[in-house]
């Protein structure tokens, strides 16, 4: 699809459940996530106190799932619908980059359960995402609902892996449970939207 045709094409709507899931993902930044009970927001504030650059790095890296949630929530606004795909795709790219880095470090340390699986998930996901660009196999544009589903699958996969760490007596906070449940709901909700628009 040519850029001018894409600009004239109607923007797909995601539906209220999808936007609600995005808002819940964003709000989970305020829930306990670290083993010491701190939330992502508390850790972000701590990094910002060290300096602007550490704070930005924290937000772009570990904060990318929450930025993804914000993007899904805010594209409900009619004024932002024309930018929806770009707003949603950007934090997904950040998630892939952060996941590759963290998965490699975890695998190298050899101290986590399923480290090789996490690394494989990160590598395969990043390659597929990079190859897709703005187009799916077959040359058809990836729709907004499919893009949302992609990000939701990523969050669900990583949250599920985090839950496995309880077998190694690593207790992560409530945010992981919330992210896992909401991401699974988001996968189903975005799949439904995609089928309705097909």
Point out poorly predicted stretches.
1-10, 136-140
| Total of domains | 1
Q: Biggest sheet: strands, sense, closure?
A: none
Distance between the termini: 17 Å
| Integer-rounded radius of gyration | 17 Å
Which structural category fits the helices and strands? mainly alpha
Strand content: under 5%
Bin the helical content: 55-70%
Number of strands: 0
Report the total helices: 9
Mean pLDDT: 85
Order of helices and strands: HHHHHHHHH
Name the shape in a single word. Answer: globular
Structure description:
It is built from 9 helices and no strands. It has one domain (14-197). The model is unreliable at 1-10 and 136-140 (pLDDT under 50). The radius of gyration is 17 Å and the shape is globular. The chain is mainly α and 198 residues long.
């Amino acid at each position: 699809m040519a850029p001018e045709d894409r600009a004239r094409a109607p923007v797909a709507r995601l539906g209220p459940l999808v936007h609600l899931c995005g808002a819940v993902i964003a709000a989970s930044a305020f829930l306990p996530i670290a083993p010491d009970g701190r939330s992502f927001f508390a850790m972000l504030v701590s990094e910002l106190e060290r300096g602007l650059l550490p704070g930005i790095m924290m937000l772009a890296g570990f904060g990318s799932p929450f930025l993804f949630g914000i993007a899904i929530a805010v594209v409900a606004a009619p004024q932002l619908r024309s930018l929806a795909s770009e707003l949603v795709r950007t934090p997904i790219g950040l998630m892939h980059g952060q996941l590759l880095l963290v998965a490699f470090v975890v695998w190298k340390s050899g101290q986590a359960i399923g480290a090789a699986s996490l690394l494989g998930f990160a590598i395969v996901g990043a390659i597929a995402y990079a190859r897709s660009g703005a187009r799916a196999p077959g040359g058809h544009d990836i729709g907004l609902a499919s893009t949302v589903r992609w990000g939701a699958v990523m969050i669900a996969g990583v949250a599920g892996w985090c839950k496995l760490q309880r077998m190694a007596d690593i207790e992560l906070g409530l945010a992981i449970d919330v992210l896992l449940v909401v991401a699974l709901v988001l996968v189903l909700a975005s799949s439904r939207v995609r089928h309705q628009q097909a």
